[in-house]
Predict the structure.
Amino acid sequence: MRKLGLIAGNGKFPLIFAEQAKLEGVSLVAVAHRGETPKAIEKVVDAVTWVYVGELGKIIRTFHQAGVKEAVMAGGIQKVKLFSNFRPDLRGAAFLARMKSREDDQLLRGVAGELEGEGIRVLESTLFLSQIMPPKGVLTRRSPTPEQWEDIRIGFETAKEVGRLGVGQTVVVKNRVVLAIEAVEGTDAAIRRGGVLGKKGFVVVKVSKPQQDLRFDVPAVGVDTIRILSELKGAVLAIEAGKTILLEKEELLGEADRKRIVVAAVSF
């Protein structure tokens, strides 16, 4: 049986990845982060070790002891937790001291390099998940209006540029005006901020960064995203085709149809 290590972050992505991996007959050894990873991870993996953010040495020891040679990173770590729940061990502290940049991509590539230097190859987090990364097309019964398509285009181009700078991956637009750009607060908070300004009928666009490394930090949206749009009377959720994960895909699209929200996978 194939054995994989799973470095689990927050949200539902680690759970969905684990469930799909089990269907593929994979044995999972997970490292979960305190205050971030859902407790439910314990029910969908073969073994789990809990760590604090920054305990890189403990992660490596856990995988070595389990005989793990390949690993996947699934789910993020809230940046604000780096100020409140950050407890690096000696290996983690030494790693951070060597890093010149604190941007997400640079840190994650650095962690991957540390693991690979220990004989643990880091694989793409989209492994086993192609069925929930939709190709280009409208995914709901409703389609965007011409005006909404223009907002989607503006949001897509803006989000790509913001992503290139390593700031965020989500933009909120209405009537060709950018209302909010995701930063450290995360996608949901950015949508709320833009929704309050836009009142109703706004468009949310989420993309991958131009330099996106599919081994980690793949953009994802879930049912909760649709519920926030509905609460704030948003009109459209546009994601980048083939590069964004739809968590709980069928439930998400069903909820969108019930709330009369457009969901489209796009590329420009």
In short: The chain has two domains: 3-123, 131-266. Helices lie at 13-23, 56-66, 90-98, 104-117, 146-164, 187-198, 223-231, 249-258. Residues 157 and 206 are 11 Å apart (CA to CA).
